Amino acid sequence: MSRLGDEARKVFPLKGRFETDFMFVTLGVIIGGTIAANAGYRVMRKRPKPVNRDIDVVLESVNRECDDVVSLTFVRADGSDFPEWQAGAHADVFLPSGRQRQYSLCGDVNDRKHWQIAVRRLADGDGGSREIHRLRSGAQLKLRGPRNAFPFIVSDKYLFVAGGIGVTPILPMVREAAARGVDWQFVYAGRSRAALPFLDEIAALDPERVHILTDDVNGVPAAADILAYAPEGAAVYCCGPVPQITALRREFGERPGTFHFERFSALPVVDGKEFEIELVRSGKTLKVPADRTALAVLKESVPNVSYSCQQGFCGVCVQKVVEGPVDHRDRTLTAEQREESMLVCVSRAPEGACVKLDL
Ligand code: FES
Q1: pTM for this model (two decimals)
Q2: How remote is the CA of residue 318 from the centroid of ligand 1, in Å?
Q3: Full domain range(s) for residue 295
Q4: What is the CA(129)–ligand 1 centre distance, in A?
Q5: Mutate-to-test residue for ligand 1 from 317, 331, 333, highest number of ligand atoms within 8 A of CB
Q6: What separation in Å is there between the alpha carbon of 299 and the centre of ligand 1?
Q7: How many angstroms does the Cα of residue 316 sit away from the middle of ligand 1?
Q8: Of 262, 297, 328, which closes a domain?
Q9: Does residue 343 line the site of ligand 1, with CB under 6 A?
């Protein structure tokens, strides 16, 4: 060390590399810790801890609600409470055959000991509803949820519209509106009274506000006639057949208020072009016409292919893409996931292209 250095040390007591400066060490720890914590935070944000929402349940009771509709009430296998849920929520149901289906929760949101769904038996469906109708009390199943793609907004005026089994997500909303004492009206439509589940409970909520329109008595109601029941500026909630929802949306147009809907069936294909899917493991090539989905075509060759919502939000129908351009039309996959997979219920390919799937 030079003499000048020694003098300087006396005036400015800086410490050299062989001594420990606690101020810098402390700063280093703070800065280093902050950087590490931030890095860790980024990692944590990238890979959130998966939440296991699978629930083992026992089917407590099955009740016939009307022609072709049964309600099923479940309790948890371990006797504990179900998670909280909001009106409009649904649960995934894993059936003994391996099928996975989604059904709206239609019971009492305040009853944490029970979850209830209702299912119409579809004679020409793919077997899921028929399997549910064969279930008996005591059956053990797995549910997953709740999830809510049909949130119930706070408003002081509502019009509820349900077509047949479309009443299931609507019913908890009507109960809540009635309990809150707000202004509501409910149009409940179907082929006949015998085809309307939960009719007695609904009619008893408030006969002045419940309007039951059946085709056999009133004819098929026009969208304008249904919307005529809406209080000015109401939030309109609608669940039912696709033609009914489409007509109501069109008629609602630019009216004051908000329009909310949920369908049970597959989305119609819009602006589709014909393309092919190749199943690389089985060596089959399938043509997907412009007006059909890849899932609809796949189901004919791979009967046990998984799916649920058919609307691009549950993710159940995801398939690994080996090669080929995909026109992603879902609301679920991340950009990273889209690099190697597609949701075959909604996503397609450009005209004439071939997408190779790991099937
Ligand atoms: S079936 Fe739900 S995203 Fe395809």
Answers
A1: 0.73
A2: 7
A3: 275-357
A4: 17
A5: 317
A6: 13
A7: 5
A8: 262
A9: yes
Assign residue 322 the CATH number of its domain: 3.10.20.30
Domain boundary residue among 147, 172, 194?
147
Q: Say whether both 88 and 167 belong to one domain.
A: no
Q: What angle do CA 169, 173, 176 make, to 5 degrees?
A: 150
Which atom of ligand 1 is nearest to 345's Cα?
Answer: 4
| 18 CA → ligand 1 middle, Å | 65
Q: Is 314 in the pocket of ligand 1 (CB under 6 A)?
A: yes
Condensed to tens digits (0 to 9), the pLDDT of residues 237-280 reads 999 988 899 999 999 999 999 999 988 777 779 899 999 999 99
Q: Encode pLDDT of 78-111 as tens digits.
A: 999 999 999 999 999 999 988 888 899 999 999 9
How far is Cα 34 from Cα 44, in angstroms, rounded to an integer?
Answer: 15
Strand 183-190 and strand 157-163: pairing?
parallel
The 10s digit of each residue's pLDDT in 274-297 is 999 999 999 999 999 999 999 999
**pLDDT attached to residue 51:** 61
**159-191 b/e (C-beta count within 10 Å ≥ 16 → b):** bbbbbbbbbbbbbbbbbbbeeeebebbbbbbbe
Same domain, 339 and 313: yes
Q: How far apart are CA 259 and CA 109, in angstroms?
A: 23
Which atom of ligand 1 is least distant from the CA of 310? 1
Q: How many whole angstroms separate alpha carbon 108 and alpha carbon 49?
A: 30
**In this structure, which amino acid lies at residue 148?**
N
- Ligand 1: does its nearest atom lie under 6 Å from the Cβ of 299? no
